[in-house]
Amino acid sequence: MTDIVKKEILENLSTYRFYVLTGLLFSMMLISIIVSYGDYHLRVENYNILRPGPKETDKIIFPPEPLSIYARGLDANVGRLYQLSLRGIQVQPSQQSINRVSSLFSLPDMLFVVKVILALIALLFSFDAVCGEKEQGTLKLILAGRTRRASVLLGKLAGRYLLVFVPFFVLFLISSIVVSLLPDVRAGNEYWIRLAIILAGSALYVACFIALGTLISSLVHRSSTSMMVGLAAWVLLVFVVPNMGATVAQAIGDVPPADRVEMQQRLAVIQSVFETQQQMKNAKEKDYSRIMLQIRESNNHLFQTYRPELNRLIELTRTVVRCSPSGAFGFLVTEMANTGIDRDIRIKDAIWMFVERNFKRFGGLEKGEAEQFQFRPSSTGEQITGVALADALLLLIMPAVLVALAVGSFMRYDPR
């Protein structure tokens, strides 16, 4: 098996394919770091401008996460200014980039590079692992020896995996060190642990597509056919399933969008004020505390009705999207980067509970200032044993299943 691994590495190192694809990977990672850090630096500047003072307890804003340079996720959405009032929680629009043209295009962060580019490179390195050898007539010679078929295939898998992952690992390590030295990046122990988990997830994700390409190569007899099937599988798993998963879940869940809920909240406030004023029209003195309490009840009712539906939609979306390794990898990386759905939900729940505890003080019904808002982010251990555990397990199981299928297919493959 060791000889097969060496053979695969040496043969591919002498081809243009290795240098072209490695150069493409280097270029995309470099662009990713430059663009993502520029976006992160701009968001840090916006945060420093909008950060409320110690006595501005009715305003909340969260600093950008350093790991959003690698996976932007929902960090820009979370990092908006939250204005607290009797009407509820008013979320200010996201801070826009100075360059308006850049807003027309999605940012190519490291998550995008791995999900899309590295997955494609893995398929382009593995689509001819078996059928390519058959076309060259060398597969019969390899199988004529004493090496078992399973060892031959595993050697091919290991050799081509190393050709893809080792250059990525070196480039990722260099970029991580460079980023940690840049201004505004706080790189403590937690930062490096999370980055190591992201790298481990990337290793499993690459293994999925190397195994998939080898499986396809062992099912067909021509390299051109294997390439076409591999590209179709790449489009399906990277683009179609993750994007269609959210659409299907939305259709099944039938949960109203956030902007409609916000509109309902505003209408509820107006209706509460009108109904309370009508009830007090003939009173000598109007008790405005009743108006405030009615607004509070309306907002609570809307929140308690909408949140369970939203939670069901999120879980359904996760279940559908996780059918693809791209979906599971995206969830794992964004959670480890602290830019995922779980952090977004926890922050909004914490803000809502803060408003509930200080509602009467915001409305002047109680004397004194509102308490200072505090939020405890989840630790790495809590995340990896919580919401990210299912995604990590899926990324372990998927390549193992694909490798087993590839070995089973190669055992019956006709080398003639």
Calculate the mean pLDDT score and round it. Answer: 83
Which regions are unreliable across 5 or more consecutive residues at pLDDT < 50? 96-104, 282-286
Number of helices: 16
Spatial sequence of strands, sheet with the most strands: 1-2-3
User: Largest sheet, if any?
Assistant: 3 strands, antiparallel
Number of strands: 3
Share of residues in strands: under 5%
What distance separates the N and C termini? 22 Å
Structural class by secondary-structure content: mainly alpha
Structural overview:
- The chain is an all-alpha fold.
- The chain has 16 helices and 3 strands.
- The protein has helices at 2-13, 16-50, 75-78, 110-126, 131-136, 139-144, 149-180, 189-217, 223-253, 258-279, 288-321, 325-336, 341-357, 359-362, 380-384, 389-411, and strands at residues 59-60, 82-85, 88-91.
- Strands 1-2-3 form a 3-stranded antiparallel sheet, covered by helices on one side.
- A hairpin with a 2-residue loop joins strand 2 (82-85) and strand 3.
- Helix 1 crosses helix 7, helix 2 (16-50) runs parallel beside helix 7 and helix 7 runs antiparallel to helix 16.
- It is elongated, with a radius of gyration of 27 Å.
- 34% of the residues are buried.
